[in-house]
Amino acid sequence: MSAALDLAVCYEDLTGQPTMEPAKGQDVTDVDARLVAQAQTGDFAAFEELVRTYRNDVYGLAYHFLRNREEAWDISQEVFIKTHRSLARFRGDSSFKTWLMRITANQCKDYLKKRRLDAVPFNDAIETHDAPSVVPGPDASVEAKELGAAITKALEALPFKHRTAFVLREFDGLSYEEMAHVMNCNIGTVMSRLHHARRKLQASLKRMGFARG
């Protein structure tokens, strides 16, 4: 059995297993650094622990881009396979998580290019993000769906680099510094792309009759 296949099976077998919490007073980046160092020497158990820790983050980011559970699952496995193969080149210039998110974003971008997809639907994310605790009435529900569809359409019109900035910030909650590492640019560029994404989104919604105020 190949190493790549072993890793894919490993990722599947990890489903449902608890993630080891850092010891009290120990920073997660210290834990990651130790596990990465061990994995770089060939300790596959250490890499398994990294997979357990970040599989949900990888899957979540892939799903935000692809909006398809099976495709996001496949991309997640590919990401960890690629990460395992590239681990020797990781030098710790960023945290392991941001490096992993960068690989994930690039994998999604390549996948979308291959499928000639210029748009990423966000209906499900919009409808479930910050969902109210009280079930809305019929009119409110219809209005929310219409707004969700409008936001989806507006997001689909954004360039990939602007959508990436929006997703990483608004859905994954990354800091500007983390986004800069993932997007391979400086913080100023991150802020500019996010600003353009929000401005274009607001303008699109206004044209569709969803302007605020």
Fold topology:
Layout: H1 3-13, H2 28-40, H3 44-66, H4 69-86, H5 96-114, H6 123-128, H7 138-156, H8 160-171, H9 176-183, H10 187-207
| Helix share, percent | over 70%
- Give the distance, in angstroms, between the N- and C-terminal Cα atoms: 61 Å
- Please outline the major beta sheet: none
Tally of helical runs: 10
Low-confidence stretches: 1-5, 14-26, 117-136
Question: How much of the sequence is in beta strands?
Answer: under 5%
- Total strand segments: 0
Shape: elongated
- The CATH top-level class label of the largest domain: Mainly Alpha
Radius of gyration based on Cα positions? 19 Å
Look up the CATH topology of the largest domain.
Answer: Rna Polymerase Sigma Factor, Chain: A
Assembly status: single chain
Mean pLDDT: 78
Number of domains: 2
Q: In the CATH hierarchy, what is the architecture of the largest domain at level 2?
A: Orthogonal Bundle
| CATH superfamily descriptor of the largest domain | RNA polymerase sigma factor, region 2, helix turn helix motif
Structural class: mainly alpha
